[in-house]
Amino acid sequence: MPFEIERKFLIKTLPENLSKYPHKDIEQGYLALDADGTVVRLRRKGDKFFETVKKGFGLVRTELEVEISGEQFEAFWPTTVGKRLEKTRYEIPGEYGTIELDIYGGRLEGVITAEVEFDSAEAANSFVPPEWFGLEVTDDLRYSNHSLALEGKPGEFLK
């Protein structure tokens, strides 16, 4: 299974002219969650649909994502009730690649995170976040998307 190497941060301030960056609305729901960190999720991103399996915690995880049909998505979507989130994802060019800025909606309104993916753990570890990034939450499970979908906002935001 392919690997995902990613760091995640809370945001202190939004970048200027945010609307100029490409963005899409995302709906995400979870089909399965296991104690070993394996999650199976459904995602609607714009007019495309995906099923993703991720395993592990922290900086390096395995990830397999496949595009599915709208019919397949709609068939499984009802099983994600109570395990969903919605967000708008902005794709912002950065020195190390694309920064994925997520502004959550619904019951998660007020949560804003940024994720940066890397080709290697060495590149991830040498990354210097831009000034507008806040606290790193890569290893804070309360800010994993599946925890946000199940538990809602963490009790106290760490800024």
From TrEMBL:
<protein>
    <submittedName>
        <fullName>Adenylate cyclase</fullName>
    </submittedName>
</protein>
<dbReference type="InterPro" id="IPR012042">
    <property type="entry name" value="NeuTTM/CthTTM-like"/>
</dbReference>
<dbReference type="InterPro" id="IPR033469">
    <property type="entry name" value="CYTH-like_dom_sf"/>
</dbReference>
<dbReference type="InterPro" id="IPR023577">
    <property type="entry name" value="CYTH_domain"/>
</dbReference>
<feature type="active site" description="Proton acceptor">
    <location>
        <position position="30"/>
    </location>
</feature>
<feature type="domain" description="CYTH">
    <location>
        <begin position="2"/>
        <end position="150"/>
    </location>
</feature>
